[in-house]
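Re: that chain you flagged

S.,

Sorry for the slow reply, it's been a week of failed gels. I finally had a moment to sit down with the sequence you sent. For the record, here it is as I used it:
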Amino acid sequence: MLDTQYLFNNLTEIKERLAPRGPTIDFDQLEQLDIERRRLQREYDDLRHQQGQASQEIAKRQKAKKDAAPLIEEMKGVAARAKEVQEQRAGVKEELRQLLLQLPNLPHESVPPGADESANKTIRSVGQTPQFDFPPREHSELGEELGGLDFKRAAKVSGSRFVFMCGWAARLERALIQFMLDIQTTERGYQELLPPFLVQAESLVGTGQLPKFEEDVFRTTTDHYLIPTAEVPVTNFHRDEVLEEKVLPLSYAASSGCFRSEAGSYGKDTKGLIRQHQFNKVELVKFTTPERSYGDLERLTADAEEILKRLKLPYRVVMLCTGDLGFAAAKTYDLEVWFPSQETYREISSCSNFEDFQARRANIRYRPTGGGKLQYVHTLNGSGLAVGRTFAALLENYQQVDGSVAIPEALQPYMGGTAVIQGS
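Prediction finished late last night. Pasting the structure tokens below so you have them in one place:
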């Protein structure tokens, strides 16, 4: 959520900065609600002032044994009106809050302008794309022929966009998760968390998924939600807390299942592991100060990149333009890994600085070391990495002419020394 004082004091500027992000909210309605809120607040304050003065006058009259009944009767009407105004004000404030919750974050000044992904800026490319002397095959085809991926039985059990991972594939998925967590927790300074996979609505409001993107998440009959990413529970780990500046930045790494309805993506990437309803992901989350958050964004991005470097997967880092930014992000780097079968790069991680957008929604503040008023932290997160997509990229980039798949050297200890996955 944006700073409301800054928003209403700079409404024209806000409109201009948000324009590249496409349709947002009705700003005229926003202004009218704010005007009504302030009017009701003034009326309520005036009524309370009348009550305060009358209370003193009633006490004075009663002490002097004078008739206070008319004034007491008058104040009953004032009290009734004050209660009515208070209820109206609460209603307007909630309507205003719901509107503000649908307003996206402001892009950072370094974000390139543009309407869609065509305006994204490639920052760097790392690694050489593999050259095959045979037509490279899709990961789903390779995985099925090697007996590791079973989409048909998963469809029988759960419907489309699910998979059974069998034998070597189940072990490879587990190995990737352990490999990613080990690097982040033993080398890069992250504390590991194992979060709940079910959260309450307020947690999704805190990170920005609700109310705007309710159709994208799975809701249970108990009004819990399956998490779309570990970002949700881990960011809310410090909800409604005041942190000490001296402990910042706090860095967490969490492995979790992720669950997404993928509403509106029918027919897009429905084959294979790219866009599943359920998948595993290792998430990196940071809580930091405004002064160092953009330096921490660079560090977090480098931490996610380290996994791709160790696996020797070719990738590129792309800065998203204003029109391609996620709802809550002020700045985002996408890591895109090479898929030979498609001859293109595909997103495998998004590393974002949300500034104080999530912290305001989740009420996460810190106490400055030198004193002064409490401030909102800046939150950051990035995938380190999406495990299913890493799995798919490994199969495609390390495939061999006989249909087998080599295992990157860095991952072999996690696979019991297995160097090549062979067909049965």
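What I noticed first: The chain has a mean pLDDT of 95.

Talk soon,
D.
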